Sequence to fold (425 residues):
Amino acid sequence: MAKFLHISDIHLGFDRYDSKPRTLDFFFALKDVLEKYAIEERVDFVIIGGDMFEHRNIKPAILNHAQYCLRLLQEANIPVLAIEGNHDNAPYGTNSSWLRFLSDEKLLKLLEPGNVNAGDPFYSPWDEEENRGGYIDLDCGVRVLGSSWYGAAAPRAIEQIAEALGELPSAPGPSILLFHHGLEGQISRYSGALRYREVLPLKKAGINYLALGHIHKSYVEDDWIFNPGSIEANNVEESQFDRGAFLVEIDKKGKIKAELKMDYQQRPIVRLQQKMRTSDLIEAVEEGAIALIDKAIRSKQIIPAQQPIVELRITGNVGFDRLDLDTRALQKTLQEKCQALIFLLRYDVEEADYASPISDEASRLQVEQEVFTDLLAANAVYRSRATQLAHGLIDLKGRQMDGQNEESLYEFVEQLLEVGASGDE
Fold:
């Protein structure tokens, strides 16, 4: 019986929100996962299914994060076997990647197929002196094989891999293949995913455990395809997925017991929604948002001391110009209230649509009256007296065209608004 940890999509160096603490979250998540589920569980090995890094070119601090975590495993005598994903393969115009550097430093083993076009075999056994190879037979009796990032060419690559598997010497026990690609039907809006029938040749060729990466949601298919998901959420939508690390036991016959581990250090993410109505004034948006945050704090959904990531999505229809709301000021107020590391305010409202039918025979005065009335009725502040104020606007237009000075026009507007607000006729 062999025990191993399967992780993928670590994305060290994540910097989407331009927040240093958020970038560190990905390091702390990896460190905690390895300490809890690799070192404390005394696994035989760790596999990484691609996307160790967020970027192909990384900063020195991010390399230090990777080296620190990998040295923890090295000190515990736990080998690490990895492949490159689409995020961390060699930068354009170069022949090496940072995973290759880490492999040359003997902090992990980067399993790569050979260059068939140059006459190399597709799979060569791991060479400890050269730090090169496509597969390795471990002391625990498990064979682990690597692959590359193939993108749209993945179906053809699977055929090559299956063919190459048949040319290898017999495995000492169960076989694991690392493959960075997604399976169809797991998440929406993802094109290019593989169909199950396209990966089936790998099972027929003797792969007992297909270790996937790429999709940030955990899933298992037919008890031989396993994808752990990202260890930390790359966006707020991913907070709704089960994600983590697979702690796996596999016996000599290939029988698998895999547990998804999610109890480790991650930044809390809270998603809230506020639905507006046409009758709501602009003040209702601000007051409602503050009340919603207060309620989430009271219920412990938001714990300010944890400095969570909070998303508030404001939707619905509003009876005022949506641009009148100072979203930046509101966002700052809400972020300070809940002490969020990152506060995302999604202001997705639509202005109420008021449009009265106008006859083709209507006079210019009637058209103006209806247009002014519709504009005013769309604003919750003026809706109840839209008709009266529309008459006043027409009167204002006439006064302006008659050449009245600006002082008298301003005075007329003030009187118009005061009369309407007081309810006098």
